[in-house]
Design brief:
The structure holds 3 protein chains of 3 kinds. Chain A is an all-alpha fold. Chain A contains 13 helices and 2 strands, in the order H-E-H-E-H-H-H-H-H-H-H-H-H-H-H. Chain A has a two-stranded antiparallel sheet with strand order 1-2. In chain A, helix 3 runs antiparallel to helix 9. Chain B folds into 2 domains: 228 residues, D-Maltodextrin-Binding Protein, domain 2; 135 residues, Periplasmic binding protein-like II (D-Maltodextrin-Binding Protein, domain 2, 3-Layer(aba) Sandwich). In chain B, a hairpin with a 6-residue loop joins strand 9 and strand 10. By secondary structure, chain C is an all-alpha fold. Chain C starts with a helix and ends with a helix. Classes of the chains: A mainly alpha, B alpha/beta, C mainly alpha. Chains in contact: A-B, A-C, B-C. At the A-C interface, helix 1, helix 3, helix 4, helix 5 and helix 7 of A face helix 1, helix 2, helix 5, helix 6 and helix 7 of C.
Amino acid sequence: MGAFGRFFKNMNRNAAMLVMVLPATLWFIFFSYLPMAGMIIAFKEYRYSRDGFLASIIESKWVGLQNFKFLFSTNDAYIITRNTVVYNIFFIVLGLVIAVAMAIMLAEITNKRLAKVYQTGMFLPYFLSWVIVGYFVFSFLSLDRGVVNQVAGWFGIDPMNWYSDPTYWPIIIVVVFLWKSVGYNSVIYLAAIMGIDKSLYEAAMIDGANKWQQIRNITLPMLTPLITILTLLAIGKIFYADFGLFYQVPRDSGTLYSVTNVIDTYVYRGLKSTGEIGMSTAAGLYQSLIGFVLVITSNGIVRKFNKDNALF
Amino acid sequence: MGRKTKSFTAALSLLLVMSIVLSACGGGKNESSEGTAEKPVELIWYTIGTPQKDVNKVMEEVSKYTAEKIGVTVKMNMIDWGDYSQKLQVMTASGEAVDIMFTSSWAFDYVQSARKGAFMQIDDLLKEHGQGIMETLDPAFLEGSKIDGHNYGIPANKELPAQEVWRFNKQYVDKYKLDTSSVYTLESLEPLLKTIKENEPDVYPFAVDKNQMPYVPYDYVIEKLPMAVSLDTTDYKIVNVLDTPEMKQILSTMHKYYKAGYIPTEAATMDSMTDVQTTGKWFADRATSQPFADNLWSASYGYPVVSTPASEALIYNWSVMGSMQAISANSKYPEKAMEFLNLLNTDPVLRNMVDSGIEGVHYKKAGDNVMENLDESKNYDMPTFSLGNVMLTYLNTTDPTNKWEEFKKFNDAGVQAPLLGFNFDTSKVTTEIASVNNVKEEYWAALMTGTVDPETYLARANEKFKAAGLDKIMAEAQRQLDEWRAANK
Amino acid sequence: MSAQTTKGRDFHKLTPVWNVAFHAVAGIFALLCVFPFLFVTVISFTDESTLAKNGYQLFPEKWSVEAYTYLFKAGDQLLRSYGVTIAVTVIGTVIGVVFTALFAYAISRHSFKYRNFFAFFAFFTMLFNGGLVPTYIVVTQLLGLKDSIWALILPLAVNAFYIMILRTFFSTMVPDAIIESGKIDGAGEFGIFFKLVLPLSLPGLATIALFSTLGYWNDWFNALLYINTPNLVPLQSMLMRIENSMQFIMQNSQNASLSMGVLQSMPQDTSRMAMVVLATGPIVFAYPFFQRYFIQGLTVGAVKE
């Protein structure tokens, strides 16, 4: 009997749950965990073998941490890390505040039909590819024909060469990011607000709480678990940057690199001429590992305060 | 906690089993090739270009012809321009079954992919089954596309050298009776640009975009990285091209032009000048030419364009590798693939079928080697230059009859650039290349378009290049170059 | 009762000033989001040479449907691509929501012993992945899905991010009391899940369904990797292919053979905008469908008391 029997007993008690997780678990094994074996390429100088992928991996030379070196070898390493992390912090904080605020506003607006229209509208930027967004930003900021310079001209301000002056780009990047993502993110929060038990509000009203008190004492606390989870997940991606936002929108302008070069664009530019899979895998692994450590740490902190809000 | 570990171990062992299954599936299968007219083998061919509706229909006809001739049938897969490199990289890296694939210096990089083992080495195959190719192709093609002394692909027979030209919008040349024949250097362009600037405020005098690179008489080791040898070199010393007097002069001229307003203000971030080319609001630019290019340009823009040379016609590595077909390293039928490529490059019937489709459906003959497109040709519109020997293809009714003779003359007149046939193996300096590339992207476009003052920016760029390890790359390149020269003496 | 409601309404509703302010903020932001889209539509109907001459204009000098004629030349291909996209989106969303909901529910239950293990199991995949080539090999060689519609459906079916969101919905929105009451009524775990939990979680499910729908609708990369047969190419993939190729050709316009060979047949700027309109139009109209569930969630929530 022993451990084996105990296993089955537990199994029985949890059988239904195990059946529930089975389909997605199989999916994860096939589409996530099996391919993960490929991370080994990060430590190899990957060369193709005519006998297929596995033979290629086995026959390729071990190079240790060589593939990681390019991420740290120059002064750019500091700039790209700083840019990636700082932008992401702004994205996380501002994105959260604005999306939650927007969701609350949409939920509170009395005219539901208009609220629907607004929500649909906010969603549209999600459908525009970064290339197209890049064109729009350009139609605003173009030196000769851009709207901004034209308007500035009416007030006698000299036209400005936006694409060669990094001063305002941190703001432009953040604004464009928020513009594109707030609609999408507010959907999650709006759904959560819609799911809140209405009796809570009724009870508060009977107690004489006004709208602001209701928002502060009911809506926000009810949203906290979701906010925590989404923030934790975002922290995991803190070393990743949206390539299109940092590449297409500033039109890959070299003079702006000090504020637009991030890990993803750096890797792309660096590997363009050699196309080493080992190096791109190494970069991905590096981004994941840092994210992983950060999430585990912050998850631990969250657990200390409230076990239920933690990821696991 | 202990149980958790156990389940994790279980998951891990499952993973292991899976990977064994995976490896069993990935294993190579070797079948003996049959390849006769009765039992033809199928060749899988990946090539670049917008997928055409009638590809399968045409390939059926092609297969009938090739089955009879060499015992193969052909399955062609077209991958659109923008996706080709990525898709082929994934396919070759994963060891997918392919027999023939398009490769070049600008899409699915030939040197890179060959070095990683994507292609079969074809020295012997070429001798055995590719005699036709060796006879028709200018030897410079095969010589220039060698990697570490071996051939991995078959270049298309087309224009061999690259010649830089100044192009002019003829409308303005005529209007102001400008003399373009005296233009050769960048500096000699100035009086013309000045005239246009003064008289045509809406026109870009000198249409430059971010991809533009001023011409300097140097042969680059890697395209657009600042290491090069002088064209008239005798000692084959690799120098930092940004340190050369020629480059310095050209950059300050460009900057002067920029300040004078000859160059579009946003040149450094413009992907292309297609807008301006559509409207015709430009006067001069630079391009790479081939015989009768003026006709092609004029036809595609819808207004006349004329050109004058800006450099000699030189045969570079990249011009040789402009369009190639390679045999995959894991091809099951390499001999048959070579026989097919040989036929494609020597047999006008096959070559024209692949290029223009089925006679009577997609095109009709209008003379011995002249053809006319029919309406259906819109369902089979192929990029001619990417599919092998272009000099076998039928002329269009609008083409000059001596087109291919002129091409041959042009090729014969081409001068070999010093690094022709030398291909730098970057595997020892990949880290430095990645850093240097980033520096290059940061400064290149701004410098080359004249947007920034080279006086200050050149020094700054060079400093960063040095910090990123350019010297180490140059030393490694120099070592390989010296070895290559010793081996090729 | 009615007196209480009227009294309650004072609190329930915003003061008019704040209501107007909310309208203004949400409205203006929505407008800022819609505007570029309208602009895209206008440009797609602009005459190409007018566009090249004047740049983007809200009221172009000359209108044209040239771009759409160009895209509709593909004709039946376009229709088929719509068909593929719709099929993939519908099947994929259904599978995705079912898989996600089951997994998320299980790990939201305190009574599930391995909840933390499976939560971690899912979360781990959000950060680590083997990259393109290994995934490609699993899909094509191990699962043999090359050139199959399942290659478009399965790789996007499950997403740890959605699982985490939905788990949070389940654990905050579904009171334990309801599950307990189900148990007392003698319902099995599946019965509780389908009969009691799902109806309460409509807003959450709608969110996941919406994201999943958008994910499928906008996906073009899987088709690039796995699909060669033109009959199976979805809409976005077809359009992105054209867009990518335009960019590629423009960036390589210095290349003599390339520019001479293909430049003249290249689609134009306006077509690119028309593509956005064609690809986005249908899904924008489908959006209110999902919104209905959010509103329903509101009523369900009210019934819960």
